[in-house]
Write a structure and sequence with these properties.
The chain is mainly alpha-helical. It has 13 helices and no strands. It has one domain. The longest helix is centred in the last third of the chain and has 30 residues, at about 195-225. The two termini are about 20 Å apart.
């Protein structure tokens, strides 16, 4: 069984399955809302659409870079070409319901190059935690400049952000310690790589950027699909950040399927009717998915050097 999981045939089936499932999810969304989609008065602006894709790609690029730094530090795997391939293909799997395809796909891919599953899981958990803390900090830093975002969750978000960051800096190796405790009880070899405080701060600093870029993407998406909208850039960043934090908490859903769009649509009510906001968010999600599919297709063209395991 293990030998089959490491085979090139299994990897091809896995990647093909991810793409097929994402196509199915896109088809379901389009068919479910087809009547509303065709009746909506679209005012497509290709320049703004291009900027939407550009900033979404920047956000993906930064999160990939931090993932590469994490794998190099905690997984002892610094091959940027393979990290690029594994990251973008597995990130596309987030569009499939449940985290099974996302985390499972990442585990199987890294097993191909000899990275132990515990190291990958540690990076996935730490990635989620740090990017969440960075999102909270970004949202709070812009708090005085929002004009129409409801004053909700200010104190809880502040507590989560401060406690989370201080906790990580006080004991940055906590996840590795917990994993090693479990590995020792199972008689397995413990991990030798621990994050340092400098690592946590550097990763956290990088992770602020995707939240900003995602806000830019939402800002231009509103203009790309609905023409002139009075939504300000700072408010767009705040709405994008808050909705993605909601999606991040919903770990069993694919990037907040439905819940994210509903939250963003409610927050956009001061600028447009709910039906318009919902259609813009639906179109924005489809553009994000198509963009991620393009990057995943590009990543699949990356091959390991001769010194690495090729598949």
């Amino acid at each position: 069984m293990i030998r089959y999981l490491q085979s090139s045939n299994f990897m091809k089936w896995l990647i093909t399955g991810i793409f097929l499932l994402v196509f199915v999810m896109v088809g379901i969304v389009v068919l479910r809302d087809w009547d509303t989609l065709i009746s909506f008065p679209w005012r497509l602006h290709f320049g703004y659409l291009g900027l939407t894709i550009f900033f979404h790609s920047l956000a993906l690029g930064v999160t990939f870079w931090v993932w590469h730094l994490m794998m190099a530090r905690l997984g002892n795997f610094a091959n940027i070409r393979m990290n690029f391939r594994f990251y973008y293909v597995s990130t596309l799997a987030k569009r499939v319901p449940t985290s099974l395809w996302y985390i499972g796909g990442r585990l199987v891919m890294y097993r191909q190059v000899g990275v132990v599953a515990s190291a990958v899981v540690n990076c996935v958990v730490l990635e989620t935690l740090i990017i969440g803390i960075a999102g909270v900090c970004t949202f709070l830093a812009l708090w005085p400049f929002y004009t129409n975002i409801p004053n909700v969750g200010g104190l809880p978000l502040t507590i989560i952000g401060i406690v989370g960051l201080i906790g990580l800096l006080a004991r940055p190796q906590v996840f590795v310690d917990v994993t090693n405790w479990g590995l020792r009880r199972l008689g397995k070899q413990a991990l030798d790589y621990n994050p340092k405080r400098r690592d946590i701060l550097v990763w956290w600093g990088w992770y602020v950027l995707p939240w900003i870029f995602a806000g830019f993407a939402l800002y231009y998406a509103a203009r790309a699909f609905a023409g002139h909208v009075n939504l300000g850039l700072i408010d767009a960043i705040g709405i994008s950040t808050l909705t993605m934090l909601v999606a991040l908490l919903s770990t069993l859903l694919p990037g907040g399927l439905g819940l994210k769009e509903l939250t963003a649509s409610v927050l956009l009510l001061p600028w447009m009717p709910f039906s318009s906001a919902l259609m813009i968010n639906l179109a924005y999600r489809l553009v994000q998915t198509i963009n991620e599919m393009g990057w995943a297709l590009l990543a699949m063209q990356v091959r390991a050097p001769k010194s690495e395991l090729d598949y």
